[in-house]
Design a protein that fits this description.
globular, two-stranded antiparallel sheet, 12 strands, eight-stranded parallel beta barrel, alpha/beta, binds ligand PBG, 11 helices
């Protein structure tokens, strides 16, 4: 008996790429950059090999390195000099992130995305304003509606500095609407908004919290970030953000949530972004260091999987390495 259909015919070298369904392109990728106001020199991030926090004076140089690989977009994260209860350096006109955005947009051709959150800027490490008695209270809550105003100010300050896109990641209900409204009021109707619409409370963010110094000092983020168990709820979150005016809808983390990326792709017309987070990067590096995995191959396969699941764009710490290989 011979097989009638032989899919192997289309797997030979000459034809493989003709029939391939999915591509990863350098222009699909956004590279994260950490700008740290507490240092004068580049500091390697131990949990994320190959990545560094750069001082504000090196933000432009860092972005130019990324651009040379063919990656055109960056997302900037700031580590401020000082922190306080209301994260005031997140929305200071001369804050670390505003200075970096100003320099990078003035001096490079990069497409500049600003991460809009308070956790790197608050002394308690939560993504918003918390109840006063919280430090001793295990049932601490981030005050949703009071936080909206601060997120809106943060987004406007980033747009004032020249950001092309803002990306709210605080999982505050109503943040997209509040930010869109504030941007428009300030004359920034052309600044795009990418919402971290579906952001899970994930242990895969561990290495990032070292990188950006944004770990909660106490408590956790379960009462505002999503429960990993939930899939339908992702559609609800994404629908709200789409209705509130998000231009791009993001799923985060990426690889452990490919089903959710696919759900959003099928349900919405907006471009879908996936955040290939710090833990996804760190685990491949750790295994490669032991000689257990081929780093470049698994990195590429990860990005391809995210694209195949339906992501149009990917935020990834592998951006430069993969772009270099392409
Ligand atoms: C800020 C923010 C976080 C990440 C991106 N923006 C941390 C968090 O929510 O704990 C994580 C990114 C990564 O792990 O690569 N809220």
């Amino acid at each position: 008996m011979h097989p009638i259909d032989r899919p192997r015919r289309l797997r030979t070298d000459g034809v493989r790429s003709l029939v391939s369904e999915t591509d990863v392109d350098a222009t699909d990728l956004i590279a994260p950059v950490f700008v740290d106001a507490t240092t004068d020199e580049r500091v390697p991030i131990e949990t994320m090999p190959g990545h560094e926090r750069v001082p504000p004076s090196e933000a432009v140089a860092r972005v130019e390195e990324i651009r040379r690989t063919g990656v055109e977009a960056v997302i900037l994260f700031g580590v401020p000099e000082t922190k306080d209860a209301r994260g005031s350096h997140a929305y200071a006109a001369d804050g670390v992130i505003q200075r970096a955005i100003r320099d990078v947009s003035a001096e490079t051709d990069a497409y500049v995305v600003g991460d809009v959150c308070l956790c790197e800027y608050t002394d308690h490490g939560h993504c918003g304003v918390i109840e006063k008695r919280a430090e001793t209270d295990p049932t601490l809550t981030v005050r949703n509606d009071e936080t909206l105003e601060l997120l809106a100010k943060t987004a406007v300050s980033q747009a004032d500095a020249g950001a092309d896109m803002v990306a709210p990641s605080a999982m505050t209900d109503g943040q997209v609407k509040a930010i869109r409204h504030a941007l428009d009021e300030a004359g920034h109707e052309n600044v795009a908004l990418m919402s971290y619409a579906v952001k899970y409370e994930s242990a895969f963010y561990g290495p990032f919290r070292d990188a950006a110094d944004g770990a909660p000092a106490f408590g956790d983020r379960r009462h505002y970030q999503m429960d990993s168990a939930n899939r339908r709820e992702a559609l609800r979150e994404a629908r709200l953000d789409a209705e509130e005016g998000a231009d791009v809808l993001m799923v985060k983390p990426g690889l452990p949530y490919l089903d959710v990326v696919r759900d959003l792709r099928d349900e919405f017309d907006q471009p879908i972004a996936a955040y290939n987070v710090s833990g996804e990067y760190a685990m491949l590096h750790a295994a490669a260091e032991k000689g257990w995995l081929d780093l470049e191959a698994v990195a590429y396969e990860s990005l391809l999987a995210l694209k195949r699941a339906g992501a149009d764009l990917i935020i990834t710490y592998f951006a430069e390495d993969i772009a270099d290989r392409l």
